[in-house]
Amino acid sequence: MSQTPAIKHYLQFSDFAADEYAYLFTRAALIKKKFKAYEKHQPLVDRTLAMIFEKASTRTRVSFEAGMYQLGGSVVHLTTGDSQLGRAEPIEDSAKVISRMVDLVMIRTFEQTKIESFAAHSRVPVINGLTNEFHPCQILADIFTYIEHRGSIAGKTVAWVGDGNNMANTWLQASEILGFTVHVSTPSGYEVDQSIAGIRSSDSYKVFKDPMEACRGADLVTTDVWTSMGYEAENEARRAAFAEWCVDTEMMRVAQPDALFMHCLPAHRGEEVEAEVIDGPQSVVWDEAENRMHVQKALMEYLLLGRLA
Ligand code: CP
Ligand code: NVA
Question: Which is the catalytic residue, given 108, 183, 238, 263?
């Protein structure tokens, strides 16, 4: 029997309910506080995380690897190039083998169907470290960062300026679960698709042709690269299509006076965001990056040990 339906995975944001997010945000705050005080927090001694990267990474790798060591565990790092994954070993076989030797798996890959196949054949929890469709760990960190700076995100407005990509899809899922609104502005041909985003209705988001109108009155303005990993062949067409979708000081000016700016990074100054914005006073991008580690520590602990408080 290879299927293990009772295991809790984190493959997309909608895998958890609002009360689980409330727990994770509280737990992440505690874990962060202990980290800042050099206080040991090691509930995962003797546990091993396998990290599988089929795409490049800086933040995801460092945050999961450092985070797991801080929790008392250890990590194994695999890439397509240095494992049999790159030599066409079936994903199902890889899942069966890897999950017999480790306690937790984090995967960064291409299609969501690939991580779903892995999870379906895994004996241990699987975490999505980014797919073409979703990036749930990033939105977990972003919302935690919003709460740290401004309190609850419920009832607030998030402006998404740019590609209808994995980040946009995940923001839409989060808005349904946590009760906020997303103003989405993308160039035509790069719209969000409700069926790919995996949301029930269009009640929690509004589409705007003009990115300036999407930002008007927003509590948070956020964007991402014009060309995501895996879409590099479209680079030239995207540079032309996205020219007006650069978050600039004018867009920040029409947002709420205390609006925050976020970007999951890596960023391209002068493309999707002006340097004055990402390096300006409303930007919280470095907190966002650091918080990846704190929320993922809470996530790994939760997947392996359940609620502890
Ligand atoms: N934001 C993010 O996931 O960054 P990396 O691609 O560096 O992991
Ligand atoms: N949308 C980007 C996010 C990178 C962290 C990508 O998928 O490449």
Answer: 108
